Amino acid sequence: MAPRRLPTALLLLTLLTGCAGEEGREAPSGPGSVQAGTTPAPLSPSADPTDTAWVQLMIPMDTGAVALLDLAAHRALGPRLRSWAAGLRAAQTSELAALRGLRDRMGLPGTDVHEGHDMPGMVTAHDLAGARAAEGTAFDRLLVTLIHEHLEHSMRVSRSEIAAGGGAAAREQARALVTARGEQLAGLTALRDRDH
Questions:
Q1: Key word Nuclease present in the record (predicted)?
Q2: 167 or 46, which is more confident
Q3: If you average pLDDT over residues 47-75, what whole number do you get?
Q4: Hey, which of 6, 17, 152, 162 has its CA 20 to 30 A from 25?
């Protein structure tokens, strides 16, 4: 079977952010990957393809991060990490609501076009299973690694949206996300520095 092709706008975002093969992750392949002949989710006639790709990527990225941060409330060993994770969870939940609202205003479907994909910054079902199995400092290390990757890559994707997106509302949301990510990454760095 021929390899599937990513929708053009998503491919642009992926290439701009250098997602493929970075940090030990590979471009999606196998079950759940987008393959040739796949019909992308229908777009609203007014939806810009880059905006669409960004929104449809950011929602599952944030959804996975929130699921991981839910675990941190009960599994994180370090009290500072637990407190920081709770604050980040609240911020990500609010951001997710804004992204879903934007998706709805753009007339996009609520389906997850990235279900089953293993991409940098995406907390996958496999990652969540590993987090549920980890305890103590092993959980804390995994949480920090996965969340750092999520914050870093979602910021890169959002910078690409700012540069290439066609809709003012999507670009504005992307700018807010980039600002938030800078603060969140600084907080995580400070937390790690205090613990070392």
A1: no
A2: 167
A3: 95
A4: 162
